[in-house]
Amino acid sequence: MSDLNRFRYTMESCNHCGQCKWILPHRMSGWDFAEVCPVHHHFGFDAYSGQGLVNIVREVMEGKLERTDELADMVHTCAACGACDVNCKSVRDMEVLETIYELRHDLAQAGHLPDSCRRMAENVSAGCDPFGVPLAERFSWLPGDFRDDPDSDTVLFAGCSASRDPGPVLAAIRILQAGGVPFRLLREEERCCGGALWRSGQQETAGDLIRGNAEAFRKAGIRTVITVCGECFGAFRSIYPRFVKPGFRTVHISQVAAGLIREGKLAFRQDARPLTVTYHDPCMLGRLSEEYVPWEGEIRSYGLHVPEKHWNRGEFGVYQEPRDVLSALPGITVREMTRRVEESWCCGYWTGQADPECAAATADERMREARSTDAEAIVSCCPFCRTALSGAGDPLPVVDLAELVAGRLA
Ligand code: SF4
Ligand code: SF4
Question: CA neighbours within 13 Å on the CB side: how many for 296?
């Protein structure tokens, strides 16, 4: 059952300061690119922001606002990118994103879900991934002559995006093979990571997928899970501990590549075309990838949490390794955007997005920022970011980091 009451402290602590809509002043380079909340940017009302959503939860709890389909549609325009959360936490100790997640859970429990979210669960119940690809076709992109190491305790988790865009996973395979890293695929044992379903408020259905994957890893003796997708990475780190005690560590292919480069195990062509790029930090690889640490206790006056509570503020996401990889590639020059690392602007992709226009405007805004750096291409580490950003108006080429690395191997 949902439990909005757990977040009463957050609702009562919001002082309407508005920091959840802006990057921190010392990071600003001016008025342009200072906003951080995509829905507030698009709609221009406080209701569409971390502040507004926290206030809405309070009104729902106090019976002043009804749970309706219209409210659910509005709540699911939010990309759950978490930018409001880390910026709020720079001024106050409260859980904005967790409150938004719980509101979605509460609405889903009451039967209020956008069709986009409902379809995800229906697809999973019908033996498909959330996007409708049958499980039997999940690895149909795998070359017939591919051989992995069935005894390895490291799994390359392909993720649902591979069915639509296998390039990044195939590139990851080339990187692991070039670096001499033994690994295996789970093939028919792999299911959707469950992250998108959980974030849509359908936490019970997500729990089934999460427990299923964790059990498949346990049975296969997996100790390390390598992901290519930022969404999967964030799900394993920030959602799985809510359901299971993960007996594995999660690493992203950008971290593996950075390690292999440091150890001198990857060699690159020196004659590759020079390219100036800018790097887009995916939300679920960056600020939303810190490990979830459960907390139960008492909140006393002035917000004193007893026992002490662990706060995820986004600062320990995967930010440096993708940049280390880019700087190691011959011919690549990196130009940074204003909104980067934990202040990154979301690409706009949200599987359950109830308003495609809002998603498109979010991607457009990111592309406008990328263009302001004079980069020739935008690089990301998450196939969903590539999908979203490629759909922006007047897009720069959107390059996946693993593909860039694999394409420049000697
Ligand atoms: S930053 Fe936090 S306290 Fe300030 S308005 Fe936003 S949610 Fe409320
Ligand atoms: S999670 Fe992202 S889109 Fe949603 S309110 Fe917060 S900053 Fe805005």
Answer: 1
